[in-house]
Amino acid sequence: MSTQSKNDEQERLKLLQGTLDLLILRTLILGSQHGQGIAHAIQQTSDEELLVEHGALYPALQRLEERGWISAKWGVSTNNRKARFYSLTSAGRKQLAAETTKWNRFAAAIGRILESEGS
User: Does some domain include residue 106?
Assistant: First the structure.
């Protein structure tokens, strides 16, 4: 694989990670939630369009916790199982605001391209 191909792949991964991070932070603005609850909320809120795989969710939660944007503590889920519950930190709220602004600009730019008269 060429260096350019590797760089392209890494950029795509960053975009995906950044998008998932934003969705997790946005979900946690409503209150603490365990991993399965976060995935379910994203799926429901997106009208079943987005499905978060466990293989992507848990590394993202770990990454967000390492960055100090979320915190976690053990608790018991509604089905009486031990689970880690994640909460948004004040740093996470600031990051959510910054990322939301960036995402809205990005989406608007893509929208302008897709709606341009040349298409």
Answer: yes
